[in-house]
Amino acid sequence: MTIKEANLTLNVKDMDQSISFYTSIGLTVKSRWGNYYAQLVAPGILIGLHPASETNLAGNSGNASIGFTTDNFEEAKALLQSLSIETSDRNEAGGQFIHFNDPDGTALYFIKPKW
């Protein structure tokens, strides 16, 4: 068996709002099946969005964090500010981070690594 592709699927409350959010920060829509499922891509990651419901959230922890590596930290920060997205910064041994959330509260971050 060969795994040909993998993705992370997030359960979202509003497909249109979530797609708009993720495309505004630089991801692109790979495919969309109405309001049932959409795939967005960024270099090295495929993110699936799925409508949230009590059934498909049963037993899930709801914990996810998605990081995006950037070569221009200030540009990433300016983009989030221009979109009125609340952020918090962190600087540590591994690099600089800008933490923010998507419309459903999923933790996201941009990192400019020091490695």
Give a summary of the structure in a few sentences.
With about 120 residues, the chain is α/β, with parallel strands linked by helices. It has helices at about 15-25, 55, 75-80, and strands at about 10, 30-35, 35-40, 45-50, 65-70, 90, 95-100, 105-115.
Topology (SSEs and partners):
Layout lengths: L7 E5 L2 H10 L3 E6 L3 E6 L2 E7 L2 H4 L7 E5 L3 H10 L5 E5 L2 E7 L5 E7 L2
Describe the structure.
The protein has 3 helices and 8 strands. The chain has 115 residues and is an alpha/beta fold. It has one domain: 2,3-Dihydroxybiphenyl 1,2-Dioxygenase, domain 1 (Roll), CATH 3.10.180. The longest helix is centred in the N-terminal third of the chain and has 10 residues, at 15-24. The model has no long low-confidence stretch (mean pLDDT 83).
Provide key terms for this protein.
2,3-Dihydroxybiphenyl 1,2-Dioxygenase, domain 1, VOC_core, Glyoxalase-like domain-containing protein, four-stranded mixed β-sheet, 115 residues, Glyas_Fos-R_dOase_dom, Glyas_Bleomycin-R_OHBP_Dase, 21% helix, 8 strands
Q: What is the fold named in CATH at topology level?
A: 2,3-Dihydroxybiphenyl 1,2-Dioxygenase, domain 1
The CATH architecture can be given as Roll
| Lateral arrangement of strands in the main beta sheet | 1-4-3-2
| H and E order | EHEEEHEHEEE
